[in-house]
Specification:
15% strand, alpha+beta, 46% helix
């Protein structure tokens, strides 16, 4: 079994790292101080050796040829101070026994001068010949080939450094313990914001999603982490809200679609059962039942087609793009609606602006990129709604031109304007198709709901088809959004309604030759 030596807790790791670093720093500083002190003390001994000169009488041989017969004829206590030792190598190269200085210890010196590896005037450390401490020695050359070695013991240096070494070890141990205890408290205090974040996260996962982190000081790392954590929470909450809203819209859409499909299906089922149960119905009644079945089947087929188109637009917004002339599409739509609603006053006019935001007061080619079939469907849908939901004497006008988006020209939000999509950036060049009527207009509540799926306003026109499924404006708005544009409504009670389709002006508008 492998032992896991690495600590798992971040707090423990920080305490260990700080303790090790502090201990290493203390020991390094003590080692440096110990080295400096030992060097200084050794330098003092070297200075004493360098400036010390043996007594003049010791450099002469008072008993020439009788060096081995006895010690030098003067008392040593009158010659050397303190703990100096002086040793002589005679002219014959042998160590003389008449050394100067008293004491138990002595350096380890060779018996012959030929084995003496010392340079004159340079202090050197040699081991002890008797005793425990080393010696610091220096050699000089005297008269008549005499070599003199002066020595001083290093016991004071070694004693001082030994005491300082133990003192350093004790200081290092105390520092390690102190840093460990104080560092643990300091790290615990410093990591308290992280503990609070952990508790907050646990409470959020435990069922309190509205909580936020309170440590958000941007000057600290934990504060910046708290800001990032709160930002992440806001994004997660927004995503969850969008998911909930999407699921609610989907459930409502499915319920509305089921309700809309149930009506024609019920009618078809009822008339079919009538024909099966009463096979001998009069021919007129049978023909009426067949017509009602066909009409409801057609209505259900249109509803299914609209639902399929909405789903298709959601996954593949614009499968085909080409240069589209909006003026031609508007003219075709006006022609079709005049045939479907004879007697209605439907006109095609230029989009008047009279300024930098508006185009010239003349019909002109307005081109953009998009799917011509989808854009034609939007224009026809808007014209059909204008004819169905306004009185027969209301005038409908289709305007085509170019603008730069703004509160007056369109494309941005303002009071009295509604749309299912967000506003376009102000000042954006856009191609515009407006379908305006001078009917009674819409109330604010109805204007806000007009782009919702399955919303149907009361039909006020005459001679037109019956109200549809309520998906027309939703489909038109989805097509506009898929073309990176916007469908919006300006209306007020008694002031008429203006549906405005704005599309990106990706192709220059102006006169163009057409085949």
């Amino acid at each position: 079994m492998r032992l896991r030596l690495r600590p798992r807790s971040t707090r423990t790791r920080l305490v260990l790292i700080s303790t090790v670093l502090a201990t290493v720093a203390v020991l390094a500083s003590q080692a440096a101080g110990l080295t400096v002190m030992r060097t200084w003390l050794t330098g003092q001994i070297d200075r004493r050796l360098t400036h010390f000169g043996p007594p003049p009488r010791s450099l002469s041989d008072p008993a020439r040829g009788r060096a081995s017969e006895g010690p030098a004829p003067f008392p040593r206590e009158e010659v050397l101070p303190s703990d100096y030792r002086v040793y002589f190598y005679g002219a014959d190269g042998r160590l003389r026994p008449d050394s100067l200085g008293d004491g138990d210890g002595r350096p380890r010196l060779p018996a012959a001068v030929s084995s003496l590896i010392l340079k004159d005037g340079r202090p050197t450390t040699v081991p002890a010949g008797r005793g425990t401490s080393d010696w610091r020695v220096i050699a000089r050359t005297g008269p008549d080939g005499l070599r003199v070695v002066v020595a001083l013991p290093l016991d004071t240096v070694e004693g001082a450094t030994s005491k300082l070494l133990w003192f350093s070890i004790a200081i290092g141990a105390v520092a390690a313990v102190g840093v460990g205890l104080l560092g643990s408290a300091a790290v615990r205090l410093g990591l308290r914001p992280l503990d609070r974040m952990e508790r907050t996260a646990r409470r959020i996962t435990g069922g309190e999603p509205d909580l936020t982190v309170t440590d958000t000081d941007p000057r600290t790392e934990t504060g910046r982490l708290g800001i990032a954590f709160n930002t992440m929470l806001d994004q997660v909450r927004a995503a969850l809200h969008r998911k909930d809203a999407s699921e609610q819209r989907l459930r409502r859409f499915m319920a509305d679609a089921g309700h809309e499909l149930r009506t024609p299906l019920t009618s078809i089922q009822g008339f079919a059962e009538l024909l099966v149960e009463h096979p001998r119905l009069p021919a007129a009644r049978r023909r009426e039942a067949h017509e009602l079945i066909a009409r409801n089947a057609e209505r259900m087929s249109r509803l299914v087609d609209d639902l399929f188109l909405l789903a298709k637009l959601g996954y593949a917004p614009v499968a085909h793009r080409e240069t589209v002339d909006l003026l031609s599409l508007a003219a075709d739509g006006v022609g079709a609606v005049v045939v479907a609603h004879p007697g209605r006053d439907v006109r095609l006019a230029p989009l008047s602006g009279g300024g930098p935001n508006g185009s010239r007061d003349a019909l002109d080619v307005v081109e953009t990129l998009g799917d011509p079939h989808q854009l034609a469907q939007v224009i026809v849908n808007l014209l059909a709604n204008a004819c169905v939901h306004t009185p027969p004497d209301a005038r409908v006008e289709v305007r085509v031109g170019t603008v730069r988006t703004g509160p007056e020209a369109g494309g941005t939000d303002r009071p009295g304007r509604s749309s299912a999509t967000g506003p376009l950036p102000p000042g954006t060049p856009a191609c515009v198709v407006e379908i305006a009527d001078d009917g009674p207009g819409l109330a604010p509540d109805a204007a806000r709901q007009v782009f919702e799926r399955f919303y149907r306003g009361p039909a006020k026109g005459a001679g037109g088809p019956e109200p549809g499924s309520g998906l027309g404006l939703s489909i038109a708005s989805t097509i506009a959004e898929a073309h990176e544009g916007r469908l919006e409504l300006d209306t007020r009670p008694g002031g008429g309604s203006t549906f405005r389709l704005l599309l990106p002006r990706s192709v220059g508008a102006g006169p163009a030759s057409r085949p």
